[in-house]
Here is the input.
Amino acid sequence: MTEATPPAQDLAGRSALITGASRGIGLGVARHLLDRGASVTLTARKQGQLDEAVTSLADLGAPERVLAVAGNSGDAAARARAVDAAVERFGSLDVLVNNAATNPQYGPLMEADLGAVAKIFDVNVVAALGFVQEAHRAWMGEHGGAVVNMASVGGFRSSGVIGAYGASKAALIRLTEELAWELGPAIRVNAVAPALVKTRMAEALWSGQEEEIAARYPMRRLGTTGDVAALVGFLVSDAAAWITGETVRVDGGLLATGST
Here is the structure.
């Protein structure tokens, strides 16, 4: 049996802040970056879930490189608190992963509650920009860094049922390009666009019909948090030093089929 290759420690000495990191993709990204030597600050709304997330990372044996800061990403004071805590604890903020998202609207847009739509854009777009502003103020503006925004294939094509969410992710893709232009060369800003990933947030979209949905993908399976985390890890590393303003699809080939 071939032994697994140990992860490269190419992110050692770097500090990363991941939003929406108590579970799902955010927690998967935190685990991946921690495994590659980075220090990680996890932020999400609920302290209890963050505590569970920190416990789940204990097998990596680096508790001194993990910090959890509870707060709502839609709250400006909470964003500042998380960024400041990361810089104070680890001495820098080299990586920001805007993963926090919400989707309280499902179904036709003509029947959508506009309050729910506003919340989607506030969390998925405005808060992401707010975190970049805070990171720029606290560290990146003077020292540089890398930002990854969590977009979605829904930002490229209509879904018919999660239209407001898709529109917010399209806005995030454009925001990524604008920030890459404005903040280069010291700060690189990219996005990743997953298709359906098996997380609790997306469970209603695949539970009970996983095989049927997976058959639509050329890769014949749904995504995992590890699939997304590995791409994020590449984009924040020196291996991606000349990549900025890009949105990279990690979708098992779904968009190549012309379907959604």
About this structure: The two ends are 39 Å apart (CA to CA).
